[in-house]
Amino acid sequence: MPANLPPQYFDAEKRYRQAKTPEDKIEALETMLAIMPKHKGTDRLHGDLRRKIAKLTEEAERKAATSRASFYIRREGAGQVALVGLPNVGKSQLLAAVTDASPDIADYPFTTKSPNIGMMKFENIQIQLVDTPPVTGRDSRVWLNNIARNADLIAIVVDLSNSPTQQVETTLQELDNINIVPTTDNPPEATIGKRQRKMLIIANKSDLENSGTSAKQLSSQYGTQFPVISISASEGNNIEMLKSGIFTALEIIRVYTKSPGKKPDLTDPVILKRGSTIKEAAEEIHKDFKSKMKYAVVWGSGKFDGQRVGQDHVLQDNDIIELHI
């Protein structure tokens, strides 16, 4: 079957041959991929272009290795969430809707060239959101290799008006290409050696026509694997639900401390992993507390407020603890 390539494809091919840097070559190849018709006659060409992009990406990464530290985003707040997805799904709009960040927002693809960072307030804590370049962009792999690997949670953002299930599959494949896969209790052999990360799906643009049907399809296909939260970043729909969903997906709890005879400070919680014990909380507060602690008193998750508990007592969100040493 003939490829039947359009003239624009050959224009991009010419730019590829004239390009001097790996980045410019990758951009031309990605343009060729986007323009190329998708049928059996282009399967081999599609594979060849993908292999060239992969090889050039590795070359670009090697050149960037000497300045690798510049691609690291220091974690702040109660957790770090990486926003990932295809072009024009609304990641930057989402960041602007839930934080004080002011990223560039436009209707054309690949607006985000480098990560944008914002702090999202949820009740009495701050959660860091990192808006990454589109997963199919030429700069994405270098950034994702650092950000997505180190993030506490990956939020896959999709556009409900444009084949969202396919967007999820493409994004998961791009993450798999850099050895990042969803967390699972029973990982298959294929995930050995790969970095597992907690993930959720943010279904954006719920204000558009037919978005409800797309949201149901997403939940039906992925709801047992990931939390799926439908929002409209531009209209502000379900933003509070999103914040709560991100907090839950991070699998963290807030614990407050108090001194005997004094009121607890409810403005500065200790952040712990869900399922943490009194012993782990004591170690987080001060490394010497674990060995010196005699007992603890807990308000919240005990059978009654002010209950004396042992080191193995499992804490719950918003517990108050009083450590005695």
Could you explain the architecture of this structure?
- The mean pLDDT is 85.
- The chain is 36% helix and 20% strand.
- It is α/β, with parallel strands linked by helices.
- Helix 1 packs antiparallel against helix 2 and helix 2 packs antiparallel against helix 3.
- The termini are far apart.
- The protein is built from ten helices and 13 strands.
- The chain has a six-stranded mixed beta sheet, with helices on both faces.
- The chain folds into three domains: 61 residues, no CATH class; 179 residues, 3-Layer(aba) Sandwich (Rossmann fold); 72 residues, Ubiquitin-like (UB roll) (Roll), CATH 3.10.20.
In short:
By secondary structure, the chain is of the alpha/beta class. It is elongated and about 80 Å long.
Shape: elongated
Q: Runs with pLDDT <50, length 5+?
A: none
Fraction in beta strands = 15-25%
Query: What would you report as the Rg, rounded to the nearest angstrom?
Result: 23 Å
How widely separated are the two ends?
78 Å
Strand order of the largest sheet: 2-3-1-4-7-8
CATH topology of the largest domain: Rossmann fold
Kindly state the number of beta strands: 13
Number of helices: 10
Secondary-structure map:
Layout: H1 7-18, H2 22-35, H3 43-64, E1 80-84, H4 91-98, E2 116-122, E3 125-131, H5 140-150, E4 153-159, H6 164-177, E5 180-182, E6 195-197, E7 199-204, H7 211-222, E8 228-230, H8 239-250, E9 252-257, E10 270-273, H9 278-285, H10 289-292, E11 295-299, E12 307-309, E13 319-324
Helix pairs in contact: 1-2, 2-3
